[in-house]
């Protein structure tokens, strides 16, 4: 499903994760607890042994790459997935980029590097939304990846219009989050900004797809 260039990029991101993990394991015993979860203020509130903490994100990334290879072979309307290859691989690479950012945050915490987790992770999520939104409108009608509501799956035109709407929404919300977390009045309220954005990108495309379907029925 991924092109040669996309596979090279994905491999480079995996190499960054692996090298960062190796850097920590040269200094930290395998069983040393490392932070893997953070509260809304960016303070660690969940830990795991170093070997688990450093292997978890790369393993998730490998699983995603395996999924990218498998989906066109098992999903209905797989021909449309191939028509959406550029969009699909952009989304997968954006997710891998987010996972790389999370891995680097875990590594930085292990090495006692000072960073503002409460801003870095939301910023990375915002960039993920921007990249995803830029290609959502190019996603062709399928059952596997996209805004899958009863109304988008029932009508290809509803699918297309919903994804164009969702793409613009994702870009707007993503940019707002990525930039907003660095704005002084927002500091301390990053989690609220994230939650508001999450509700918007989940609820509004669903409502829009229903509205479009009703209009089409009329």
TrEMBL record:
Keywords: Membrane, Transmembrane, Transmembrane helix. The chain crosses the membrane at residues 50-71, 91-110, 116-136, 165-183, 189-207. It comes from Massilia eburnea. InterPro entries: DUF1648, SdpI, SdpI/YhfL. PANTHER family: IMMUNITY PROTEIN SDPI. GO terms for biological process: response to toxic substance. This is DUF1648 domain-containing protein. Residues 32-61 form the DUF1648 domain.
């Amino acid at each position: 499903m991924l092109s040669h260039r996309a596979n090279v990029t994905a491999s480079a991101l995996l190499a960054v994760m692996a090298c960062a993990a190796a850097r920590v394991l040269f200094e930290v015993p395998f069983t040393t607890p490392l932070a893997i979860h953070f509260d809304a203020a960016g303070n660690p509130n969940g830990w795991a042994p170093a070997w688990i903490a450093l292997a978890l994100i790369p393993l998730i990334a490998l699983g995603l790459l395996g999924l990218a290879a498998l989906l066109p072979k098992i999903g209905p309307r797989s021909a449309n997935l191939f028509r959406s290859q550029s969009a699909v691989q952009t989304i997968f690479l954006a997710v891998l980029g987010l996972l790389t950012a999370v891995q680097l945050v875990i590594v930085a915490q292990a090495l006692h590097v000072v960073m503002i987790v409460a801003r870095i992770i939301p910023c990375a999520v915002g960039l993920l939304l921007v990249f995803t939104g830029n290609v959502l409108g190019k996603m062709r009608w399928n059952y596997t990846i996209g805004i899958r509501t009863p109304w988008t799956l029932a009508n290809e035109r509803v699918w297309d219009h919903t994804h164009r709407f969702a793409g613009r929404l994702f870009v707007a919300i993503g940019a707002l989050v990525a930039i907003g977390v660095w704005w002084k009045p927002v500091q301390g309220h990053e989690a609220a900004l994230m939650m508001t954005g999450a509700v918007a990108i989940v609820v509004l495309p669903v409502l829009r797809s229903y509205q479009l379907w009703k209009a089409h029925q009329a």
